[in-house]
Amino acid sequence: MKIVSVDQTNMQTYLNLSQPYEAEFSVYTKKMPDENGLFAMDTLIGGNVMGFLLYIDNAPAGLAAIAETSAGHYEVCDFYVVPIFRKNKMGQQFAHQLFAMMPGEWESKQIDSAVHAIAFWRRAIGAFTQESYVEDIYQDPYWGPVTRQSFSTLPA
User: Which pLDDT belongs to residue 155?
Assistant: First the structure.
């Protein structure tokens, strides 16, 4: 497992992986592909949003978009692992490595109808924090009601 930051040399790989991610979540977001079969992205890399690619055995296996909303405060905006790699807790390991790379205050939000995503983040965050996180229903200005987990990766 290797995590690399997205830059101009690997941006196309990130954009390629974003399409199955957007397609998988279109059942919840109600997005339709455009006339070329492509989905619009909600989160663009740049500014305060950092992109990451997960590689397993040299194959691109996942992506993450993390926003630094203020100094030391991070939000998981997008997170995707290609289905064939969703075993042996690869997604959880990917998330844990991202949390460890950027110590601070974190939050993750999921559309309420995405029950598999909510369950994944509860497991991943719970395992990383020894269940020391806060969960609430948050009225997101873009998505409406979402399930949100908030936690710290700073030393106690």
Answer: 81
Using CA atoms, how far residue 91 sits from 45, 68, 88, in Å, is 20, 21, 8
CA distance 60 to 54: 6
**Number of domains making up the chain:** 1
pTM: 0.94
32: domain CATH number is: 3.40.630.30
d(CA 42, CA 77): 9
List the domain range (segments joined by +) for residue 97.
Answer: 2-152
Instruction: Determine the longest span between alpha carbons in the chain, in angstroms.
Output: 51
8 Å CB contact between 124 and 106:
no
- Rounded Cα–Cα distance for residues 73 and 68 (Å): 6
